[in-house]
Design goal:
The structure is a homodimer of 161-residue chains.
Chain A (H helix, E strand, L loop, with lengths): L11 H12 L5 H8 L3 H13 L3 E8 L8 E9 L4 H13 L3 E7 L5 E7 L2 H13 L4 E14 L9
Antiparallel strand pairs in A: 2-4, 2-5, 3-4
The structure holds a DNA duplex (30 and 30 nucleotides).
DNA sequence: CGCAGAATGAAAGATTTTTTCGCGTCAATG
DNA sequence: CATTGACGCGAAAAAATCTTTCATTCTGCG
C-alpha cells in the first residue's frame, strides 16, 4: 500500500478510462482500449499510473446492504460542543473506526459532522447512538434521518468530457 | 444487464469473500481461496452467483474527486412542499439524473431528501441550486453543508462474521 | 541536426479466469 | 437399505487477460 501522492496531469484518454472504470472496473483492458482508441498495454500503463498517483483510490465490489441483513441506512447530523482541534480529531478517529459508520464528513453549517450509518435494525441504531453520542460528552445534539429509499447510491465523480 | 433478483442465502464463505471484495475486488481468486479455504473455482462460482443475485451490485474503481478537479463535496437537505407520490417520484428521477448528485436518499425526519453533491467550485454549486431548487416550485427549502474533511468515504457494508 | 525523454503498439511471456470433468456428500425416495 | 439426483467441491485443462519486453515514433530542445 504505497502512495506516491504526486499529483499528475490527466489527459482526455485518462478521463475516458476513469469514466469506464468508475462504472465497471472488470471491463477488460482490451475493451477499454477499443473504446478510447488505445492499445491494451497503453491502457494498462495509464491505469497503473493513476493508481500509483492515488487518482484511483481503490477497486471495490459494491454490496447490496439489504441482501446481507443490513437493511437500514441512516443519516445523522452531529453537533459538537467544543470545536478544538484535539476534540475534533478525536471525534473523527472515533467515527471512522466504527464499522457501522459507512461514511463520515466534517462539515460547515448547522452541524459539524454528517454520518451515513448502516445497521440491521433500529435496535442496533439505538444501541449505536447510546454508545456514540450519549456516551460522548462532547456531542451537543444529533439529528436522525432514516432512509426510506436509496434513490441513488455510488461514489462516481462527475468527470469533464 | 439481466437481474435475477432471487434472494439467495449466504454462508460464512460467501460473507468472507464479500468482505475481501468490498475492500479490493482486484484480489485474485486464488488468494481469496487461500484466505477462506476454498479452491479458486469455488470462489469464482460463489462470486458469480452473488453477482447474478444482485448481492454484488457493481464492481467499480473509486476515484479521488480532488485529483479530477471536483474538490468540493456538499450535503444538501431538501424539504419539499407537497409529498404526493407523483411529485416525490418526479423529484427522485430528477435528482438521480443529475451527474453532480453523487448520492440521493429519500428520508424521514426534518427533511425529505438528502443529497451528496460533488462539484468543482462553489460557483458550480450555486448554479446547480438555482437549477435544481429555485427552479423547482415544489422545493420548500434546502440546507447546505459544505464538507471540510472527507473523514471516511466508502460503500462498505458491515458484514456479520 | 541529432539526441533524450516519453509514450506508443506488436508480440511474447506470465498470470488469472473460466470451463470441464469426475468425485463425494446429503437428503429424499423407492 | 440401496438408489437416485441435486449440489458443491477440487484438479486439471483451456481460454482469456494481464504484464513485460522491445523496437518505433514523436516531440522538445540544445
Amino acid at each position: 500500500m504505497s502512495k506516491s501522492l504526486s499529483s499528475i496531469t490527466l489527459d482526455s484518454f485518462d478521463l475516458a478510462i476513469l469514466n469506464i472504470l468508475q462504472r465497471d472496473n472488470s471491463t477488460p483492458q482490451r475493451m477499454i482500449g477499443e473504446a478510447v482508441n488505445l492499445s491494451a498495454p497503453a491502457v494498462q500503463r495509464r491505469i497503473r499510473r493513476m493508481e500509483e498517483a492515488g487518482v484511483i483510490q481503490a477497486n471495490v465490489a459494491v454490496v447490496d446492504p439489504a441482501q446481507v441483513g443490513q437493511s437500514i441506512t441512516i443519516f445523522v447530523e452531529v453537533e459538537v460542543i467544543s470545536e478544538t482541534a484535539e476534540l475534533i480529531d478525536a471525534a473523527k478517529r472515533e467515527f471512522a473506526s466504527i464499522s457501522e459508520v459507512q461514511q463520515c464528513y466534517y462539515v460547515t453549517g448547522e452541524a459539524d459532522f454528517v454520518l451515513v450509518v448502516v445497521v440491521p435494525t433500529m435496535n442496533a441504531y439505538e444501541a449505536l447512538t447510546r454508545r456514540l453520542f450519549f456516551g460522548n460528552n462532547n456531542v451537543k445534539r444529533f439529528r436522525t434521518f432514516v432512509t426510506m429509499d436509496r434513490v441513488k447510491v455510488g461514489l462516481a465523480v462527475p468527470l469533464p468530457g
